[in-house]
């Protein structure tokens, strides 16, 4: 892409007075890196002349009920944060690009995508950094890209989408700030309870995993994976005994498309990484993100605005076993990692994080994801995967008044093995898989991914 011209930068504050207070953040917020979750929304054809004013005025309105998005973080004892709701505002950037959306290809090139989202100065004092930043880039073809940076310490993906879609409903005139589902900013639902209890499980998901040095019918393809995952049983029936999910696992249900696709990605990535190497005994694991809103005995309310997603990891497998077993083997391990996230396990995880006086060890400065499967700076032969699923999230509901987006996706992936699974834009059952692998493994991954369908 050619250079993008920045025309203006302004601060958008709530259009009505909002509470001036300090919110305590839960441990589910605290372990997140001080970084942004960055997403691009692509709209192909529209009259961009009125877009900016509409986005600004509606953003000013939505920041009233969502006033924490206009706040700032403060660093407190133990490398933890608190949220100062001070109406300092969100940053809004206007930009233009002389080319067309076709120049962006399929939005897979990181260098081009970086220009479509706001730059972040992580060297600034955290008290000065906005928690929500918008860049609106107009293209000569009439297309438009909205790049959004949302603090991951502030909210998880579910809450971010709730905010963005509520903002869009105001922009298109369907809702007002008073008629939207009012968000709940109470973070106490995921705080350690008093009197404090020590963690009941060993939470290996918060320990760094070892590294090694060194278009057809979409519905039919997904259904093939589900059928294959459910058509055979693995020869080794190892079920994790440390969590109370055994009774559920004894009554198996068909593997979901998420479990089938994630298991398939794991197998194909392992095959690609195993090319011309004897790694049959090398351990490999998958980190997944689990939405715990409905996992607790007292479910978190739908209007909760914060982080209610925790990480889980599969039990270790090895390359040789993973690639020799049927798809049901990897799908089953993904299921076990998800199903172990019960009320008791979530509570124990919160208690585990609370036991640490200083929590900075859980964060990285270069990524919005946890450090569990991250390889910093250079490729070291990462055998693991980190998988985030957006399959159940209404990411295409962001109609600001000119139609639904033609593409929604993360800006870029930060480390080898990081993966996003997203629904296609046309509600046709298609699925988009975004994955970062070392260049020498990517072609092999694509080959195995499609030939094994």
How does the SSE layout of this entry go?
Blueprint: E1 5-12, E2 21-24, H1 27-30, E3 36-43, H2 51-62, E4 72-75, E5 81-85, E6 90-97, H3 110-115, E7 132-139, E8 144-151, H4 157-171, H5 218-231, H6 246-249, H7 257-273, E9 283-284, E10 286-291, E11 309-313, E12 317-318, H8 319-324, H9 327-339, H10 343-354, E13 385-389, E14 407-410, E15 418-423, E16 431-435, H11 439-451
Parallel strand pairs: 6-7, 10-13, 13-15
Antiparallel strand pairs: 1-6, 2-5, 3-8, 3-14, 4-5, 7-8, 9-12, 10-11, 15-16
Helix pairs in contact: 2-4, 5-7, 5-9, 7-9, 7-11
What's the gist of this structure?
Pfam families: Transferase (PF02458). 26% of the residues lie in helices and 19% in strands. The chain has 453 residues and is an alpha+beta fold.
